């Protein structure tokens, strides 16, 4: 893999599919095993959909990491949407501000090794996730 | 608009999802299937997801909804061929597809549908 970082828009529904495809390629190139690839792609799908639906569109940044013998993939989803007023509530299973099942945020957190969420009302949302080999 | 094909075989409907579905496509399938169940009086629906390499909460919800809708319309839905990595991820995500009948592959799914039909 030549580039070890990049970004792409996540503005419309089709971008969610493209984001999944990019993440799959990076995860394969990084050497994640199949189950971990699947977990990372699924988490990316949830977060990309949130970026489109709740964030009004944004971007996905990705980079590959190396730490000793471990390799990892880090994804950052950024939007300039309304932000999340109550982060703790948003991370609760089954809680949704929309019509979803309320598993996107809480579920994707369980699927990855590191999960960082920064958000404030009116200031958009930034979610970074990392999966290690 | 792009559509997922629904095949009719006797009183069964067969759907094989072979593309990476965006959300509208998943919703269209839900609408098309219920319409097709009505139009053909189908007793069973077999959905093959062996080509899907992820099922996220949206697609999972679509599967659960189709299953519930078909039950109300007097048809049984069986979801077959889920990849092990997908199953592991779904459970960890928190989706356990309660009420959705599953089978390991198409053959066992068909057997299940025929058995269900004989019982009724």
Question: Can you write the helix and strand succession of chain A as a string?
Answer: EHHEEHHEE
Give the second-level CATH assignment, the architecture of chain A. Answer: 2-Layer Sandwich
The share of residues in helices of chain B is 40-55%
What is the subunit organization of this protein?
heterodimer
Beginning-to-end CA distance, first to last residue of chain A: 16 Å
Task: Report mean pLDDT of chain B, rounded to a whole number.
Answer: 93
Estimate the strand proportion of chain A.
25-35%
Summarize the largest interface: chains and residue counts. A-B, 27 and 23 residues
Shape of chain B: globular
CATH superfamily (homologous) name of chain B? STAS domain
Overview of this protein structure:
The complex is a heterodimer of chains A (133) and B (120). In chain A, helix 1 runs antiparallel to helix 2. Chain A has 133 residues and is an alpha+beta fold. Chain A has 4 helices and 5 strands. In chain A, strand 2 and strand 3 form a beta hairpin. The longest helix of chain A has 20 residues. Chain B has 120 residues and is of the alpha/beta class. Chain B has a single domain, classed as STAS domain (Transcription Regulator spoIIAA, 2-Layer Sandwich). Chain B is 48% helix and 18% strand. Chain B contains 4 helices and 5 strands. Chain B has a 5-stranded mixed sheet, with helices on both faces. The longest helix of chain B has 18 residues. Chain B is globular, with a radius of gyration of 13 Å. The chains are: A alpha+beta (133), B alpha/beta (120). At the A-B interface, helix 1, helix 2 and helix 4 of A face helix 2 and helix 3 of B.
């Amino acid at each position: 893999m030549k580039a070890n970082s990049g970004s792409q828009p996540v503005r419309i529904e089709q971008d969610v599919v493209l984001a999944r495809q990019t993440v799959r390629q990076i995860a394969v190139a990084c050497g994640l095993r199949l189950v971990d690839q699947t977990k990372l792609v699924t988490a990316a799908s949830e977060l990309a959909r949130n970026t489109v639906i709740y964030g009004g569109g944004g971007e996905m940044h990705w980079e590959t990491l190396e730490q000793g013998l471990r390799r990892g993939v880090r994804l950052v989803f950024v939007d300039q949407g309304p932000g999340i007023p109550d982060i703790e509530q948003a991370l609760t299973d089954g809680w949704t501000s929309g019509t979803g099942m309320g598993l996107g945020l809480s579920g994707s957190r369980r699927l990855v090794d590191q999960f960082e969420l920064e958000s404030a009302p009116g200031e958009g949302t930034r979610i970074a996730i990392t999966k290690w080999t | 608009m792009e559509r997922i094909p629904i095949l009719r075989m006797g009183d069964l409907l067969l759907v094989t999802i072979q593309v990476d579905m965006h959300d509208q496509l998943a919703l269209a399938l839900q609408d098309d299937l219920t319409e097709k169940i009505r139009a053909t009086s189908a007793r069973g629906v077999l959905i093959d997801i062996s080509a899907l390499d992820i099922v996220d909460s949206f697609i999972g919800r679509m599967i659960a909804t189709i299953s519930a809708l078909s039950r109300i319309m007097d048809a049984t839905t069986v979801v077959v061929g889920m990849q092990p990595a997908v199953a592991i991820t779904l459970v960890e995500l928190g989706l356990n597809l309660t009420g959705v009948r599953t089978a390991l592959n198409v053959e066992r799914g068909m057997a299940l549908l025929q058995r269900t039909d004989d019982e009724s």
